[in-house]
């Protein structure tokens, strides 16, 4: 549970940096919104892969924690 709390600020930090970069590019007349509008499903796919990877990784680590020292 403590590991989850440490990951959340990192994820939100990355999200804020990405949004800031998008707005900065818009201000310097780089038309990024057309590309974002076309490619936004990739963000959902990446999020799903990320959740799947860390979910499987956590599932594999739990049995090792239950065994304890031998």
Question: TL;DR?
Answer:
The chain has helices spanning 2-27, 33-67. It is mainly α and 70 residues long. It has one domain.
Q: What oligomeric state best describes the polypeptide chains here?
A: single chain
Total strand segments: 0
Order of helices and strands: HH
The CA-CA distance between the termini, in Å, is 25 Å
What does the average pLDDT come to? 80
Strand content: under 5%
Which helices and strands appear, and what pairs or packs with what?
Elements: H1 2-27, H2 33-67
Keywords summarizing the entry:
mainly alpha, elongated, 70 residues
Walk me through what this model shows.
The chain is mainly alpha-helical. 87% of the residues lie in helices and 0% in strands. It has one domain (7-63). It is elongated, with a radius of gyration of 18 Å.
């Amino acid at each position: 549970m403590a590991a989850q709390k440490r990951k959340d600020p990192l994820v939100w930090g990355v999200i804020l940096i990405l949004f800031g970069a998008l707005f900065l590019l818009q201000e310097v007349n780089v038309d990024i919104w057309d590309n974002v509008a076309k490619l936004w499903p990739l963000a959902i796919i990446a999020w799903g892969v990320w959740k799947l990877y860390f979910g499987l990784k956590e599932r594999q680590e739990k049995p090792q924690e239950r065994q304890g020292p031998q």
